[in-house]
Amino acid sequence: MHSRLMVGVLAFVLLTAACSPAASLQSNEPRNSITYGLTLQPTGFDPHIHASSELGIPLRQVYDTLVYRSPETQAFEAGLAASWTTSEDGLSYTFTLRQNVLFHDGTPFNAQAVGVNLDRITNPDTGSQKAVFLLGTYTGYEIVDDYTIRLLLSEPYSPLLDGLSQVYLGIASPAALQEYGNDVYQFHQVGTGPFRFVGYVPGNRLVIRRSTDYAWGPSFYQPVQANSVDEVIFRFFDDVGTRAIALENGDAQVMGELLPTDARALAANSDVRIAPANIPGQPLQFLMNTNRFPTDELGVRQALLFATNREAIIDAVFQRFSPVAWGPVSRSTQFYFGDLAGAYSYDPEQARALLAQVGFTDTDGSGYVDFGGLDVEVTMIIPPWGLIPEVAQLIQDQWRAVGIRLNLDQVPSRGLLTEHVQAGEYNLVAWYEFGVDPSFLNRYFTSRGANNWTGFADSSVDGLLADATRQKDPALRGNLYSQAQRLIMEQALILPIRDYVNINGVSTSLQGLTFDAYGWFPLLNNVTVGSG
């Protein structure tokens, strides 16, 4: 109790300091304040250190990035970099930076500031795993002049601009980074974005307010109006059952990750509109361990795919808000390979035939197939989020019909999930990652990928995915990714379930709420209150 009390006191002091006139740098009280519901409490909110999508919802408003992706076309456009060029060999990117840009603490943005941020991210002591991954083959930088910086690569890396457009590589004030250090900077964040960071109380709220000096946003940021939102209070709604109630009671004006059943019910409420947002990246999928019996057999992996009635899962669990997934890349993702649609459609007879071909039959009448006198059992690791437990229970029932006994290994956290994966005693594990550029596939399906939880190793897949990150021509990249996606499914390395859709509920008192190209992050600069 004492330690919890001290943490609460510290958090209150930090927020009080942050909300003081000197810290907020905002003399006027907000007129148009809204509450935005966050659906989990990340381990931290420093975008250079932490990796959750949840942190990007508020911090996309606080930070600008060197480049942006258009939410309409997914094309790159100017951010803090007014323009850029790439060397012929693809080993350097030269960025010409915007001038007359100030951080929220009044310090100037320039090439030296970009260098400080890159040094922080690549310093091993910072622990910037996500941000470092987004930099790919980056090795360093050269400051050409105060408003020109050149990034250097060890080999061509086409997804670099994609990485630089993400909030995890948002540009922070060097003065603030130096003053607060890695441990407490998350309570005192300073960017150049349309909103200033006011304060963060863990487990309670995070507050941002509009920066009245902001004048350098991307083209899709609309001009500020008299009724534009000027303060956003983010509160945490970990309990999924409280989210729809908060919307109905007016305790929140925006809420993400609604239960599909709640979204159906809210559709009849004239005070709330439902705004589903497609999330590019990987679908909800179960990665199959090719190094453990019985999923070390290709025929078994294929049988499990045929034995899964994904249409029934979409109906029962996701209320048709999410489309069926057919491969390792969701359809809102760049270079999605649509030819996989319909692959491994539900066919229990085909599943039984494949199991019989590898010698799995029910010889003792138990209702489950056996091999060598023992029942065949499959173990699936399932975390508690994203309705994965409900999906797993339906799969358990569906697989029982073809004689497969599925054991569900439920883990309460991301950390315990990775521990169970590292122990290796699993056949399938639920996971997904988000992003527009499918370079994330390298982490999961190359032989030495950091998250190669399938244990699969194939030089053809390695070569395709490596070439796709080096190739500059979009058409050639698309061809390489199509081949890789096809091979991944031919080897039945995953059981894809549904393309991820974030079901948002929005008060009808708000207008103009849209999301960026990555699906998760709202463009709050454009939101207005009321009709005026």
Low-confidence stretches: 1-27
Distance between the termini: 49 Å
The averaged pLDDT comes out at: 93
* Largest sheet geometry: 7 strands, mixed
Helix content: 25-40%
| CATH architectural grouping of the largest domain | 3-Layer(aba) Sandwich
CATH class annotation of the largest domain: Alpha Beta
Mass-distribution shape:
globular
CATH superfamily heading of the largest domain: Periplasmic binding protein-like II
The strand count comes to: 22
CATH-defined topology of the largest domain = D-Maltodextrin-Binding Protein, domain 2
CA radius of gyration is 24 Å
Q: In the residues, how many domains can be counted?
A: 2
What does this structure look like?
The chain is of the alpha+beta class. It has two domains: 30-259 and 504-529, 3-Layer(aba) Sandwich (D-Maltodextrin-Binding Protein, domain 2), CATH 3.40.190; 284-499, Dipeptide-binding Protein, domain 3. The protein has 17 helices and 22 strands. The strands form six sheets. Strands 8-9-10-1-11-20-12 form a seven-stranded mixed sheet, with helices on both faces. A hairpin with a 2-residue loop joins strand 6 (138-145) and strand 7. Helix 10 packs antiparallel against helix 12 and helix 16 (459-470) runs antiparallel to helix 17.
